[in-house]
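Support reply, case 0932

Customer input (verbatim):
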Amino acid sequence: MSAIHQVLLAGGAAAYQVPYSLRFRRANSAYLSRTPASTGNQQVMTFSWWMKIGELPSANQVKVIFASGAAGSNPFFAIGFNDGNNAGGNAPLRMSILEGTSSVLTSLASDMLFRDPSAWYHCVVAIDTTQATSTNRVKLYVNGTQQTLGGTTTYGTSGVYPSLNANINYNTSTYATLIGKSSYLSQYFDGYLAEMNFIDGQALTPSSFGQTDSATGVWVPKKYAGTYGTNGFYLKFADATSTTTIGNDSSGNANNWTTSGISVTSGTTYDQMTDTPTLNYPVWNPLEYDAGLTTQSTPTFADANMKFTGTGGSNNVCTSRSSIGVKTGKWYWETVIVAINGAYPVIGVMSSQPYDRLTSSGSFMGQSATTTMGYSATGSKLQSNSLTAYGNTFAANDVISVALDLDNQKIWFAKNGTWQASGDPAAGTNAAFSGFTVPTDGISAALSGYQSTGASGNFGQRAFSYTPPTGFKALNTANLPTPSIKKGSLYMDATLRTGTGATASVSSLSFAPDLVWIKSRSAATNNNLFDTSRGATVGLVSQTVTAEYTDANSLTAFSSNGYSLGSDASSRGVNINTNTYVDWAWKEGATPGFDVVLYTGNGTNRTVSHSLGVAPACYVCKYRSGSNADEWFMYHKSLGATKYIRWSQALGAYTGSTYWNDTAPTSSVFSLGTNSAINTNSSLYVSYLWSEIEGFSKFGSYVGNGSTDGPFVWCGFTPKWIYIKGDSASSGRQYDTERLPYNQASSPLYFNAASAESAEAGGIDILSNGFKLRWSDSVLNGSGTTFIFMAFAENPFKYSRAR
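Our regenerated output:
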């Protein structure tokens, strides 16, 4: 086992590592097959597997993991994905358990949508048809959590459980069993599979195969230690000696599998990968494409998102970036050229920020002077939309290497192992580009192409063709910097509860909260904010211009792991009997980047001290008491110091020098102007300030495209809580994974309104490395509108699971 695997989860609860996965390429019709020698238990069984999904579905596609049945006809059994008969990567990709003969015997689908291609899922399906309660006969668990079944499948039916004591059409010698292909239809899975266990005769829970890592709170693999039964098997894909041995069973049963469309020949088709649940590598991110860019055409992705192919004409260049972005370190990766046309493809890097559409030519390699740099098929280097003589031309099958040194701001390119223009990354000399500014969003590997030009990436999940320069690492999660906050719930969390109308307490937090924000989900009541600086019982309401209030029956005390609540006056809306609530809480300090500052206005341009130690990325100021009751006003780094947002109103961004004195905050102070709303002489104010903490908090912006295939926003973590607000007249929306435990997240709450939680027609996908807009509505994704956001992490991407 490699040293990388040994240190990946050092200090966590799990020491077990998964060294290999097997890639299934739909374009190569890849699958595994075997026919059991005898029939096993057809009533009780468990399937457990880890997967990283590749191609997202096109219309009417089914992506099958396990299948059995008569070839091309009934009966059949399948566990996999269906797209709900919707089109493209925007389809609701649901896990389905289907079974039929001439009629439907089982038809179940998850409410959860699987659209995160950047990290790993763990799935368990437990079947026990001897259970008296029908809903106990089939259970689906994802990342250790049981999921609701009943969503619509491709058959248009839902909630059909197998009948009592039914024999499932699986685990029988009558039919071939398949992995990665449907027996009924020739439709194939695309992606990576690892740690595949089938248990014959037992219905098990996820705890047999995984556990929660104590240091990160993330679900991690655990080696199965039980028995397998007659037809049980364990596929770890460890022996790549041949296509025969790669399918060997490691359970001791010798239930080996025959491979088809799988390759263990070195090169771009090599399918044994070190991309696993314990060592995640980037792929070309199919969520990156911005459908609102009229100058882009839609690229295609294949081979589990390692192959990118451009489409469209020369004025429709399309670009993709890696699913991992970095800010520091020295990195190496390779791309194998598939086809060229003119100057394309271009291989290089781009900023990880969302496509901004700030220029008429769209966002493609080389357009920006500082954030994108590339090596063109013509041998030129490309930056600022300009080609400059550099090195040799390249052609199909050439290997282009990239060495990126973010610590010294340099980048080099090699063709077939030769660094161009006498470059030497190990020595740090003759770089293709140097002295560039590393964007605050980080940098991602990238490539651009059109008219079938493209390349296959290799970030180290298979053997490199050439030895990386000394000091340069493969781009994977083990090599990412260790974040200062491994588990977000130590500093920010959300709690769900039901009001009692009597004294109550919350004691489930892993920290002593300094800010608690309370909102009823089920009723139109106030947003109530309490902080330790102003003290318990002293609240502020976000959607009004009123001053702070004191109520002995509101939040009555802060504790080391939560807070206490009073019997509540219904006018406050803090603890009304039977109302459902979500409470968001933050811990103050430089480590989580949060500060609460109280100040008294003086009516003149001034500065106010804070304790963050770095410049805040965002802060809000609110009148507490005095003669000038007014709204909440927000500074956000994406808008700059000349603009402000009325946080408590459904209004856009405004320009005004009297708010922040046109002066950006520093590591010790923030500036105030003379406006009475935030600086009336002798009036009392509170300010909440946040700085950006790598892997824990992110404050940025994106430009909407008016499409249900909206922008992807890289955060570098799985968000726990997200606030989104447009710079036009729209309400700010809050989403969190406590209320919305699976995608699509589409039931927001509002800072500027007392409204209860209600489902939107669309929403967002909250992902392992950020979020993606899935609604065309102007409130979240208006075409050409700039939206700011605040996001706090559940887990940094180094440890995240797909969501």
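We compared this against your earlier run and they match. Two observations from our side: The longest helix spans residues 3-7. The first strand starts at residue 21 and ends at 24. Please reopen the case if you see a mismatch on your end.
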